[in-house]
Amino acid sequence: MPTGHHLRVGIFVFDDAEELDVVGPYEVLSAWSLLSDLRPEVVTFSLDGSGIRCAKGLRIVPDVGLDGLGPVHVLVYPGGAGTRRLLRDSEHLEWVRTMRASTPLMTSVCTGSLVYAAAGLLSGRPATTHWSAFDELAVLDPSVLADTETRFVDDGDVVTSAGVSAGIDMALHLVARLESVDAARAVRREIQYDPEPPV
């Protein structure tokens, strides 16, 4: 990340985005903003600034639209049923490529990686997605090195995560990467996230 600049994270929201894909990373990154001396700014945005309806009915009023977003250091692109419409939208894919050119770190949650693949961002690179979407990923770009095992894949300037709750793990990884492991541990404690799945 650039030094000497205010760190800004933009979370893209759209109709039929999966709720936890959005609010999981938002919770982590907003808690980080409150705890960290870096004071990162976390903003939500939709294409036109209008409110959106997530996949299960949660309505979100974003902070801004594209026109008011300005530069961000990190883009978080969630998944959900709405990605299938967006990955067929050539104008939207061109916007994703434009963001890639100006954004140091592009991240996705769940099927957000399908949009990145459709835009050509994942060609020849390791990436992950929701467990049920790997066939779609392969069709969109057969050169993607699909990782079906990990919760997230950090490939430098692009970080993808697996389905839904994996966005929380990815966001904690971003905190560790952008500040420190200790900062990520403090955030994890703040949000009391310490999963122990049943065997």
TrEMBL record:
Superkingdom of the organism of origin: Bacteria
CDD domains assigned: GATase1_PfpI_2
Domain DJ-1/PfpI: 8-176
Protein name (database record): AraC family transcriptional regulator
